[in-house]
Amino acid sequence: MIWLGFILLCAFLVGMAISASSTCAVAASREILFERRPDMLLGFVIAMGVAGLVTLPLHWLVGPAAHVSSVVPVSASLVLGAVLIGLGAVVNDACLLGTLARIGQGEVRFLALPLGLALGFAVADRPSGLAAGVALPNPLVLPSIEGALIVFLFAVMLIWAWRRRGLKSRAQPAASRWPRAMMLAMGLCGALLFSFAPQWTYSDAIHAIVRRGGMQMQTDTRAFAPAIALLAGALASGLLTRAFVFRAPTTVTLARSLAGGAIMALGGTLIPGGNDSLLLAAIPAVSLSGITAYAVMSATVMLVLAAGQRLRPVAQPV
Questions:
Q1: SS3 for 107?
Q2: What does pLDDT average to over the chain?
Q3: Phi-psi sector, 12: left (phi>0), alpha (psi -120 to 50), beta
């Protein structure tokens, strides 16, 4: 029970951090493309820096008890999976992390995303050839000079992003500390979750049910407990900061979440994982496949958003 409480507390804090900092790859891409501001991107770097300081050293200290992301070959299927995750995020109007932030702000239509994920996993699990590459051991699981240098680089990256994010809010230094602290919490707690309970995400719980073809009360109650804590943290943050404003769903927005979830599930099967595991587990473990997938996913989001912005005026009636 103590161990479960630790996992739930970490998930709750991650949910709070996601909502308080409005963490979302789609929102970050919009901020860069249309506002020329990298504030949210700097927050991602803070989270990755903290996770990078924790992931490898924790495994060196406690051994196999702390999981480290495996490495899959960089292949066409991995690139396709990353493109699908990016495309699905734009269709849904939020990535897997951003979906929680938006629910915490009252956009309940994103509660349709899990059903979309289930539909996508059901298609992906059919004998259609959709599968990730064979997982290989991470070469950095043992202490080494290379590993120590990488951890040092994560520390440099964290300090740089922290200072840079603070400088951009020099006029309101107190206001800049809260989102930075939240990204610190997300990086730390997310790294601990992926180290000690690597299958903790709500997409993993949904995929497990789809694979079994049904729910098992005892197994799935425990599997969904971190997801419930994650959602509770997002809602608590939204209510505490008064960002929660109920927005009724429409048929179109529900359809977007269903379709976006299905597309992201197809992509996540090919990587494997989603943007949450890439950001807080694969990149901190210095997985080349994870770094490649995150870069391709981010580029896809930005390209689709830029293309949509260019086409929008054309589509408007004269």
A1: strand
A2: 87
A3: alpha
Taking only the tens place, the pLDDT of each residue in 225-267 is: 888 899 899 999 889 888 888 999 999 999 999 999 999 999 9
- Residue in 97, 88, 113 with CA at minimum distance from that of residue 23: 97
Total Cβ atoms within 10 A of residue 298 = 23
pTM for this prediction: 0.89
113, containing H or E segment: helix 113-124
Count of CA atoms in the C-beta half-sphere (13 A) of 272 = 19
Cα–Cα distance for residue pair 314/318, rounded to 1 Å: 9
Q: What DSSP assignment string belongs to 176-231?
A: HHHHHHHHHHHHHHHHHHHHH-TT-SHHHHHHHHHHHTS--HHHHHHHHHHHHHHH
Question: From the DSSP assignment, how many helices (H) and strands (E) are in the chain?
Answer: 13, 0
Place of tokens 């996913």: 297
Q: How many Å from the N-terminal Cα to the C-terminal Cα in the chain?
A: 63
The per-residue b/e assignment along 84-121, b for 16 or more CB within 10 angstroms, e otherwise, is bbbbbbbbbbbbbbbbbbbbbbebebbebbbebbbbbb
Tokens of residue 309, six digits = 């912005």
Place of tokens 């997409």: 203
Contact present, 62 and 68 (Cβ < 8 Å)? no
